[in-house]
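Work through this:
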Amino acid sequence: MNYLAHAWLSFRQPSVLVGNMISDFIKGRKQFDYPLPVQEGIRLHRAIDAYTDEHPVTREAKQYFKPAVGLYAGAFVDIVYDHFLALDTAELSETGWKLFSSEVYAMLSDSKQLLPHRFATMFPYMHQQDWLFNYRYRQGIENSFRGLVRRAQYLSDAARPFDAFQEHYDALKTLYGDFFPGVKNMALTHLTERAIL
């Protein structure tokens, strides 16, 4: 799952959200430099990633991208899951997603002192370009794919994975529907058991 899902699965807990959003930028024991609630967000992020990577639905979704991007298929599926979440009216309306995105940016802005350098450098672009809300648009997904290709060591072409996304759109949407309730329940249980919610 990508940024929107990690934000949404923080259940509006500000410190958990910070940890969940910055986790990929925190290596090893660095997590213990953060306040305990932020550490819980980092751990939640990693639990979500493990659940997602090991899920049979994700393995099926990856097959649509492997011919184009090989071992990077999972990263593209993460972005695709955010696209369908951003359109998921069972979770929020379009207006609700717009407001939620603004809430996330405000919570992150309020915790600027906790953001690692690489995330803090990226965050103004996320905010100004409204990445979270714009996952709902195919143009937003195309932009995200291009960004992923730029960061990837062995990729140079974002057109092929985007073509795969468009070609298999309905199948990927069905797979998202099969997947998301389970990961949401897992995240909720994770935080409840840790007395965060």
In short: DSSP finds twelve helices and no strands in the chain. The CA atoms of residues 75 and 148 lie 8 Å apart. The two ends are 21 Å apart (CA to CA).
